[in-house]
């Protein structure tokens, strides 16, 4: 595979969340870092983009930003407006009612 294909695959494998921060701008969160990326240009400031890639090449963060902001392709992630808001809280354990018909392991 080419380096660009590898980076596109890395975007699909490593990205865990996308947050909208402005029109055409998203925060791309991976397992190890997060970067705010301008999906309309070459606006990622990660070390891979800065040191390893030509100006016309994309890092995994830019690939993720392009997919997340595309009107033509479905994003493989949920794109949210506020990652800090967090998910709905889980019910307390005491509220859980076990089904007597089910064997829990």
TrEMBL record:
It comes from the Archaea. InterPro entries: Znf_SWIM. Residues 83-105 are annotated as: Disordered. Keywords: Metal-binding, Zinc, Zinc-finger. It comes from Halorientalis persicus. GO terms for molecular function: zinc ion binding. This is SWIM-type domain-containing protein. The lineage of its organism: Archaea, Methanobacteriati, Methanobacteriota, Stenosarchaea group, Halobacteria. Residues 35-70 form the SWIM-type domain.
